[in-house]
Design goal:
The chain is an alpha/beta fold. Helix content is 43%, strand content 17%. It has 16 helices and 13 strands. The chain has a 7-stranded parallel β-sheet, with helices on both faces. α11 links the parallel β11 and β12. The chain starts with 5 loop residues before the first strand and ends in a 24-residue tail after the last helix. 44% of the residues are buried.
């Protein structure tokens, strides 16, 4: 067996600085592990020069960056995004052979094909991999775009194989864990780990002059038409709450139109993560609409930011979903059934202040525990423990003078 040249490789298409939450968290993971071990990053960037930008920003010390140029983003068509994923898959496999890691962290960005190629590398070269399912594909994609049945079957088989051979699986919710077990018949241990949120400055004197905010992707899975219809009817009936939107997505024009019709609605468009965090921090309530079906295969990442910002949450989804249960069990807000009448009734309850006592999180202990779990430090420490990266080089560690890393290690 070939000698391992690297202790850990992190494979993720979205990385710092474009991915300001998960990408930043994974960069911090790489920086922490690189203090004592050999770490490489396989990713994509706008120009294929991420390593240079990290050097200029004094980030990623000790980690080798292997990035190829990205040719698509969230607004790109499905065919072009799929081709880009295949290009990244080939790049990932070549890069893995070049750096020969002992352990690989891989997530569902992009889904199925890249985790599958990581699995093939690990089986061929005797390495271990840790598969982080931020969402479950092809089921999550199938809700938005109807896939060819044969293609869907092949992708499901590929992903099931990847799940069964992983050293450890990581996902977001109990529903997702159940779906993974049911679909793949894997015996691999499945860890639950909340996504972190962009850091929020703690302040006792936060001024919450805003009423309700929505911050994130206004896409096909967020029930935006229902939400906008309910807001419009509520305001026409004389409702007194104000609504603030930030983010992009296919329904951005409809949000902008609603903002033009009502003074009580403001639309900021796409804003950087620090500004979005500050915006959420100025509001009392945050909206969390989500399609019921997709909660089996994903969990809305904006929930973490809402909680850390101290916002109460109005979840718009079925009461039996993982999102509604999460909101109610942690006492961070309310859940409304996904119909206009229920959403408008929730708005009226929020306006009258009757929901405050319900959402006040009076116990404190559970809320404090939840907030600790949503911080970057906790996320990184948990990943280190799951991957047994104890920051002390093991038997397979690379000699510190290896020319493979010279030029990036300090």
């Amino acid at each position: 067996m070939l000698k391992k040249k690297t202790d850990l490789v992190i494979v993720n298409r979205g990385f710092w600085p474009q991915s300001q939450v998960i990408g930043e968290a994974l960069l911090q993971l790489a920086e922490k592990c690189a203090v004592e071990q050999r770490v490489a990053i396989i990713t994509q960037s706008e120009d294929g020069r991420l390593g240079q930008r990290m050097d200029q920003a004094e980030r990623g010390r000790g980690a080798r960056v292997m990035d190829c140029r990205s040719r698509s983003d969230s607004s790109t068509g499905l065919i072009k995004r799929s081709l880009d994923a295949l290009i990244f898959m080939a790049w990932a496999f070549i890069s893995l052979i070049r750096c020969r890691p002992a352990k690989v962290y891989v997530s569902t960005n992009p889904p199925v094909v890249v985790p599958f190629i990581v699995m093939l590398y690990c089986k061929l070269f005797g390495a271990r991999y840790y598969y982080h399912l931020q969402d479950i594909h092809p089921e999550a994609a199938h809700i938005v775009v109807r896939l060819n049945p044969l293609l869907s079957k092949v992708l499901t088989w590929m992903d099931g194989l990847t799940m069964r051979h992983a050293e450890r699986l990581i996902t977001l919710s109990e529903d997702m864990r159940h779906c993974i077990r049911q679909r793949s018949n894997t015996k691999t241990e499945i860890e639950l780990l909340d996504n972190p949120s962009f850091p929020v400055e703690e302040s006792e004197g936060v001024s919450r002059e805003g009423d309700v905010v929505f911050c994130g992707n206004a896409g096909r899975l967020q029930r935006i038409p229902l939400l906008l219809g309910a807001i419009g009817d509520y305001l026409r009936q004389g409702g007194g709450l104000t609504f603030t939107f930030a983010g992009a997505g296919v329904y951005a024009p409809q949000i902008e139109a609603l903002a033009e019709e009502f003074e009580a609605v403001t639309y900021h468009g796409m804003v950087p993560a620090p500004e979005a965090t500050a915006l959420v921090n100025r509001h009392r309530w945050a909206l969390l609409p989500i399609d019921d079906e997709v909660t089996r295969y994903a969990f809305p990442s904006k929930s973490s930011g809402y909680v850390l910002a101290g916002c109460r949450i109005l979840a718009i989804c079925g009461r039996g979903t993982s999102v509604a249960r999460w909101v109610e069990e942690h006492e961070v807000g309310l859940a409304a059934e996904p119909d206009k009448e229920s959403v408008i009734a929730a708005f009226l309850e929020m306006e009258g202040g009757h929901a405050v006592e319900v959402a006040e999180m009076s116990g404190g202990i559970d809320r404090h525990s939840l907030m600790e779990r949503l911080k970057f430090g906790y996320f990184i420490e948990r990943l280190c423990r799951i991957m047994e990266m104890d920051l002390i080089s093991g038997a397979d560690a690379v000699h510190s003078e290896s020319p493979y890393y010279r030029g990036r290690a300090e």
